[in-house]
Design a protein that fits this description.
The chain is of the alpha+beta class. Helices cover 19% and strands 45% of the residues.
Length: 105
Protein backbone atom coordinates (compact mmCIF):
# COMPACT_ATOMS: atom_id res chain seq x y z
CA UNK A 1 0.00 0.00 0.00
CA UNK A 2 1.48 3.39 -0.98
CA UNK A 3 2.06 5.80 1.87
CA UNK A 4 1.84 8.92 -0.31
CA UNK A 5 -1.18 10.95 -1.41
CA UNK A 6 -1.31 13.41 -4.30
CA UNK A 7 -3.90 16.16 -3.78
CA UNK A 8 -5.12 18.65 -6.38
CA UNK A 9 -8.24 20.26 -4.91
CA UNK A 10 -9.72 21.15 -1.54
CA UNK A 11 -7.18 19.04 0.39
CA UNK A 12 -4.24 21.24 -0.69
CA UNK A 13 -2.36 23.12 2.00
CA UNK A 14 -3.94 26.50 1.21
CA UNK A 15 -7.40 25.22 2.20
CA UNK A 16 -8.70 25.34 5.74
CA UNK A 17 -11.42 22.74 6.02
CA UNK A 18 -11.78 19.84 8.43
CA UNK A 19 -10.30 17.26 6.07
CA UNK A 20 -7.43 19.42 4.82
CA UNK A 21 -6.49 19.97 8.47
CA UNK A 22 -6.82 16.24 9.14
CA UNK A 23 -4.45 15.52 6.25
CA UNK A 24 -1.90 18.03 7.57
CA UNK A 25 -2.12 16.47 11.04
CA UNK A 26 -1.57 12.94 9.71
CA UNK A 27 1.00 13.57 7.00
CA UNK A 28 4.21 15.32 6.10
CA UNK A 29 4.28 17.72 3.15
CA UNK A 30 6.74 16.44 0.55
CA UNK A 31 6.32 19.20 -2.03
CA UNK A 32 4.69 20.46 -5.17
CA UNK A 33 4.59 17.95 -8.00
CA UNK A 34 2.64 16.86 -11.07
CA UNK A 35 0.91 13.74 -12.34
CA UNK A 36 -0.29 12.85 -15.82
CA UNK A 37 -3.99 13.37 -16.52
CA UNK A 38 -6.58 16.14 -16.54
CA UNK A 39 -8.71 18.10 -14.09
CA UNK A 40 -12.34 19.02 -14.64
CA UNK A 41 -14.61 21.44 -12.81
CA UNK A 42 -17.32 19.30 -11.22
CA UNK A 43 -19.80 21.64 -9.58
CA UNK A 44 -17.93 23.35 -6.72
CA UNK A 45 -15.15 20.78 -6.80
CA UNK A 46 -12.44 19.46 -9.09
CA UNK A 47 -12.28 15.98 -10.56
CA UNK A 48 -9.19 14.13 -11.77
CA UNK A 49 -9.20 11.83 -14.80
CA UNK A 50 -6.28 9.90 -16.32
CA UNK A 51 -7.50 10.94 -19.77
CA UNK A 52 -7.21 13.07 -21.78
CA UNK A 53 -3.46 13.41 -21.52
CA UNK A 54 -2.22 16.47 -19.70
CA UNK A 55 -0.37 17.57 -16.59
CA UNK A 56 -2.04 18.08 -13.24
CA UNK A 57 -0.33 20.25 -10.62
CA UNK A 58 -0.75 19.48 -6.95
CA UNK A 59 0.91 18.48 -3.71
CA UNK A 60 2.43 15.26 -2.48
CA UNK A 61 1.96 14.22 1.15
CA UNK A 62 3.64 11.30 2.99
CA UNK A 63 1.04 9.67 5.26
CA UNK A 64 2.12 8.65 8.77
CA UNK A 65 -0.76 6.17 9.19
CA UNK A 66 -2.09 5.58 5.66
CA UNK A 67 -4.92 3.25 6.65
CA UNK A 68 -6.48 5.63 9.19
CA UNK A 69 -5.96 8.84 7.23
CA UNK A 70 -7.19 7.37 3.95
CA UNK A 71 -10.31 5.92 5.61
CA UNK A 72 -11.25 9.43 6.81
CA UNK A 73 -10.49 11.01 3.44
CA UNK A 74 -12.46 8.28 1.61
CA UNK A 75 -15.52 9.37 3.61
CA UNK A 76 -14.88 13.01 2.67
CA UNK A 77 -14.44 12.29 -1.04
CA UNK A 78 -17.57 10.14 -1.17
CA UNK A 79 -18.80 7.67 -3.75
CA UNK A 80 -18.14 9.95 -6.75
CA UNK A 81 -14.39 9.54 -6.22
CA UNK A 82 -12.28 6.39 -6.33
CA UNK A 83 -8.81 6.20 -4.82
CA UNK A 84 -6.30 4.95 -7.42
CA UNK A 85 -2.50 4.79 -7.66
CA UNK A 86 -0.71 7.08 -10.12
CA UNK A 87 3.08 7.35 -10.15
CA UNK A 88 3.30 5.46 -6.84
CA UNK A 89 0.90 7.72 -4.91
CA UNK A 90 -2.79 7.58 -4.13
CA UNK A 91 -5.01 10.10 -5.92
CA UNK A 92 -8.77 10.56 -5.88
CA UNK A 93 -10.18 10.10 -9.39
CA UNK A 94 -13.63 11.37 -10.24
CA UNK A 95 -15.84 8.60 -11.63
CA UNK A 96 -18.94 10.61 -12.54
CA UNK A 97 -19.72 12.18 -15.90
CA UNK A 98 -17.73 15.21 -16.99
CA UNK A 99 -18.40 17.83 -19.63
CA UNK A 100 -15.30 18.17 -21.85
CA UNK A 101 -15.84 21.94 -21.81
CA UNK A 102 -15.15 22.00 -18.04
CA UNK A 103 -11.57 20.75 -18.43
CA UNK A 104 -9.12 23.06 -16.68
CA UNK A 105 -5.96 23.59 -18.76
Amino acid sequence: MPDALFVYGSLRSEFDNLYARRLREGAEFVGQTTVPGSIFQVGRYLGYRREPAGIVHGELWRLRDPETTLAALDDYEGSDYTRIVVNGAWIYAYNGPVDPDTRIP
